[in-house]
Each structure stands twice: as C-alpha cells, then as structure tokens.
Amino acid sequence: MSDAELRPWLDRAKKENSVLYRKLKTARFGSTYLAGPRKLFENNPEDFESQADAEKFQKLVERSKITAWQRATIKQAMAQKYLQNPFGYRKEFWDWGSSGGTGPSAVAFLPSSIVAWIAKECMLRLFFDGSEAGKYMIWQIHDELVFDVLEDRVETVKAEVERMMTQPWPQLGGLSIGCEIS
C-alpha cells in the first residue's frame, strides 16, 4: 500500500484499538532506550496493569529489527569507545559497568544527534539564506523550532519550513525525515 492508502487504515486501527496501541507504543519507545519491564511499568502505570503486563508487550515489540540494531550499536560503541553520526557529531562512551553503564546513552545517541543536527542545519539555513521563515524564527526548544509569523505569511512560512526540514539528506543516503507543523 502507498502511504496515502495506508494512513487512513492505520489511523482507524489506532482509534479502534487505542488501549492496545498505547501499550505497544509505550513498550516500543521504552525498549528503544533499553528500559526494562519494571521501568516501563513504574513510569507508565496508566498503560500497564503490572510489571508482567509491561514485560509481555516488551517481548512482543522486541522481536523487531530494532533490537538487532541496538545490540550492534552497543557492540560498536564498546569496541570503539565512541560513536559518530553521519554528520560528524561524535560522543565517547567509557562506562560499561555491570548495570548497563552507558548502553542506553549509546543507543539514544545516533537518533537524537541526527535530529539535533538536522534542526541546527535548518535553523542556520533558514536564518542565513534570507528565507522568509528565517525572519520569523524566534526560538528553538529541544527538537522544535518556534516562529512568530504574521497571519498573512503563515502558509508561505509553513511551506518553507516543511521543505527545509523534510529534504533528503545525502549524509543519510537520501533519507528524508518528516516533521509536524502547527
């Protein structure tokens, strides 16, 4: 299915199975950053009935390819004592103690530093390339750019920002990353 065909089906499935969707989403997100079932349950008691419930959903989502990527990333960080993203950001990792040490930090580094680089690069380009959006950019908060835009310029600025943020990046093999604009 194309994205256009798939989107309504996924939206309907999420709505009709909201409790299941929330459990899977929470388990996937927690597992991405190496949270165990106990941490998942303690941090999300509204989503899981017990630690065993959290563990059940975590085992389900951990069957995905992301678990292999996590292991490979940690193995690489342990061997090299650092990771470097495709844009040249580099972070060193030394604490590999018995409690997991920097494992979660190593797993989080690549996705978070890639998003940080894209946000920074877009901010610089929008500001210095003389775009209309650059005139209205006032703040950056975590992974969000904030603009104070005149009402009659909103659509123009939204289009510029979306085009900049979602462009294909050669450093990522031509991958483009979506963005939300409100």
Structural notes for this entry:
This protein is mainly alpha-helical and 182 residues long. The chain is built from eight helices and four strands. The strands form two sheets. The protein has a two-stranded antiparallel sheet. The protein has a two-stranded antiparallel sheet with strand order 3-4.
Report a brief summary of the structure.
The protein is mainly alpha-helical. It is built from 8 helices and 4 strands, in the order H-H-H-H-H-E-E-H-H-E-E-H.
**Helix content, binned percent:** 55-70%
Main sheet attributes: strand count, strand direction, barrel closure: 2 strands, antiparallel
Number of DSSP strands?
Answer: 4
Tell me the distance between the termini. 27 Å
Strand order in space, largest sheet: 1-2
Strand portion, in percent?
5-15%
List the quaternary state of the chains. Answer: single chain
The value of Rg in angstroms is: 20 Å
The helix/strand order is: HHHHHEEHHEEH
Low-confidence stretches: none
Helix/strand/pairing category: mainly alpha
